[in-house]
Amino acid sequence: MYVFKFGGASVKDAEAVKNVAGILSGFRKDQLVIVISAMGKTTNALEKVVNAYMEQHPSVDENLKEVKEFHFKIMKELGFSETDPVWAEVNNSFVEIEWVLEEKPQREYNFCYDQIVSQGEMLSTKIISAYLNSIGVKNKFLDVRDVLQTDDTFREARINWELSERLICQKVNEILRSDNFIITQGFIGITSENYTTTLGREGSDYTAAIFSYCLNAKEMMVWKDVPGVMSADPKFSDEAVKLDQISYHDAIELTYYGATVIHPKTIKPLENKNIPLRVRSFKAPQEKGTSIGNYSATKPLVPCFIFKSNQILLSISAPDFSFIAEDNLCRLFGVFADKKIKVNLMQNSAISFSVCLDNDPFKLPGLIAELKKEFTVLYNDNLRLITVRHYYPSTIDQLMKGKDILVEQRSRQTAQLVMRENAA
Ligand code: ASP
Ligand code: MG
């Protein structure tokens, strides 16, 4: 039993869906749970619908129309006539959105967000499941909300593992008795009160990991538009090489520092059951990609780079220049936790404490205002944070050349540099 995950880019138009069908036909003999994201940029488009709705802005209709037309076009190109039952299915999803939109927002943003944005995954899986069946790639559609139970932290829902595991095993094994392929949604779940939740942006990887864990999958495969996990983002570095294998430990570190190939929450459930994760290309499905697993070392063992732009460095000190000691640090981390701030790097001296953070325009002003109640806060923005795992001293010298470096930190395996962004 394998768990596959296809992200938005792999199903962004009719051509892409046909390509996925081609890949799946090659696995007919295997039992697969296939987790799929919303098509292309649908999640962003539905976010626009939610935002307009919450502000009661008239653009809401236009925004929804775009999402509809995008999906209708794909359905036509996949050869569905308007009498095909899948049209009614897809229309049901839109009707569900319209029901929400008809009334003024009754509840908070995060709740409304989940009720609307979750339909992106419902749409894609309805269309793809029907298409596969229409060309003879037999599969059963599973509404993930029948099995993936969460709490009610909307937009960041936490899994009820015990219940989900029981339901997933029951339901999936029942279907697999008669069918080899199950199509289901990534990213979404359901509360005990039957409200739809989402697991956080890019959460479909996590869904696939949950299924893999609960079903003791042989391997989880994430199909992407890159050859595998690269040692650096090719956008920033022309020396990027594909890694053949990565240890769980390295994978967790890399995603923690901001590598975006896989969702950071994905690795842990897999590691717990020693299930390997393969990242491979839907454009070159014959290639092996990258395997993440219980390896003693990453291969090839080259320096891995993670570039994060739009960083801000805060230097925090007490107004009377007293020491930044444990009591102050405790207070500071209380504020970070409260504001849901992730610290990318930190450093302290006797009288000041520096943190490098994503310069999030929604979170930072509130954070700074809160800190200023008790501390003096200075900041530098327009910074870039470079994290290098498995570095050589020469790697770092090279990176620093001619750059304006604000912070440099090295541990045995990992080095981090904060530099001014304009330093190309
Ligand atoms: N569709 C969701 C998103 O774009 C989840 C995912 O793709 O993993 O964030
Ligand atoms: Mg996506």
Structural class label: alpha/beta
Q: Based on the structure, what is the oligomeric state of the protein chains?
A: single chain
Ligands in the model, by name, code or SMILES, are:
aspartic acid, magnesium ion
Using the coordinates above, name the CATH class of the largest domain: Alpha Beta
Q: Report the principal-axis shape.
A: globular
* Rg measurement, Å: 23 Å
Helix fraction, binned, reads: 25-40%
Strand order of the largest sheet: 3-4-2-1-7-9-10-8
Order of helices and strands: EHEHHHHHEHEEEHEEHHEEEHEEHEHEE
Termini separation (Å)? 46 Å
Q: How large is the count of helical segments?
A: 13
Blueprint of the fold:
Elements: E1 2-6, H1 14-25, E2 32-36, H2 42-54, H3 59-77, H4 85-102, H5 109-117, H6 119-134, E3 140-142, H7 161-176, E4 181-185, E5 188-190, E6 196-198, H8 204-215, E7 219-224, E8 245-247, H9 248-256, H10 267-272, E9 277-281, E10 290-293, E11 304-317, H11 326-338, E12 343-348, E13 352-358, H12 364-372, E14 376-389, H13 393-400, E15 405-410, E16 414-420
Helix pairs in contact: 2-3, 2-5, 4-6, 7-8
The chain binds aspartic acid and magnesium ion (MG).
The site of magnesium ion (MG) has 4 residues, from loops.
